[in-house]
Every structure is written in structure tokens, then in C-alpha cells.
Amino acid sequence: MTSLLKVRVRLAIVVMAGAALTACSTQTPGTADPVATNSPSPSSSQVSNVFGDLKACELLDKAMASSSNQGFSPSTPEKAGGSNSCETEKSGYGEIGLSLHTGLGIKDLKEDPAKVHDGDVNGRPAVQIRDGIGAKGNCEIGMAVGEKNRAYMAAVLNTGSTDEACDFAMSVAKKVEPFLPKGN
Hints:
The chain is α+β, with helices and mostly antiparallel strands. The chain has one domain (1-18, 52-135, 155-184). The protein is built from 4 helices and 7 strands. It has helices at residues 3-21, 44-48, 56-64, 162-176, and strands spanning 76-77, 85-90, 94-102, 116-121, 124-130, 138-144, 149-157. The chain has a 7-stranded antiparallel β-sheet with strand order 1-2-3-7-6-5-4, with helices on both faces. Helix 3 crosses helix 4 (162-176).
């Protein structure tokens, strides 16, 4: 894989993960005074168990096992997308990554609204982000796993159009989706 493609994929993953993890707030000068609330917050064990024992690498390898995806390398962990992220590549074609994000829903994806398109994957609410990093041949798909969790995929093609990248990303997302938890 070309170093330019690796940079584009990693940039897509970092941009989307960073945008999701960064919250904008207004700052008011002064001293912060904590206020007790009556609303319960999920414990870290509740958040960390949403995906249970699911591993992004195993899901991505299952999705890529079909004959139409021959030639892709076994997936490898990719920390830029989070602790449960993987990527795989096919020399001369492109790369696709999968990240399982807990505590972040598809509504938390911060992106140019003109590039975000609501839809579904096998009936599961999803968003498609076309040319999210400003590069042609780039497509991301975020699938909801409840309100505050998601499976996020990023595809970048060496050559090819954004439509081709989105068709590829959607074909892989449709194979990943049945393994994702329902509801939550």
C-alpha cells in the first residue's frame, strides 16, 4: 500500500475519532462549582460491555472472508481509531478499517452536514460520510448500536471514485452488521 493511502486512512480514522471525542463547550470565567444531579450516569462497566467480547479485527476478518473481497490482508489493530479498531488492505486497491466505539453514537460524529447522509444498514440506523477528509475515493459509515455506541468504518481506495468507495464500505458494513449487538 502506498504511504499516501496509509496517511489518508489514518487521517480519516483520527479525524473521526478525534471529532467524536471532542466536545465543544462555552467557557465561562470563574470558579467551577459541582452541582449534584438526580440523573444516574452509566458506570464504566456498563459502557465497556456494550460490545461484550466482540473484537473489531475478528468482525472485519469475517466480513472480508467472502470471495468478492479476496486479496485483503488479515486485519491488524489500528490504535488511531480507538482501543477496538482494525484495518485491512489490498495492495493496489485500498484499505478499510472498523472501529467499535462505546459511549459515542452516530449523532456524535462531527462532520460537515453536506457530507453526512442518513440511512440504514440492514435496517439499522446509520450515516454515510462521503469524502469526509476532503479526498475523493473516501467513504465512512457509522452504524448505531443503541443511542450512544457505534460501529464505524472508513474506506479509502487507491484509485476510484467516492461512489465506488461507498459501495465497497456498504458491502462490508452489511456483512459486519449482523454480528453487532441489537438495541443497547
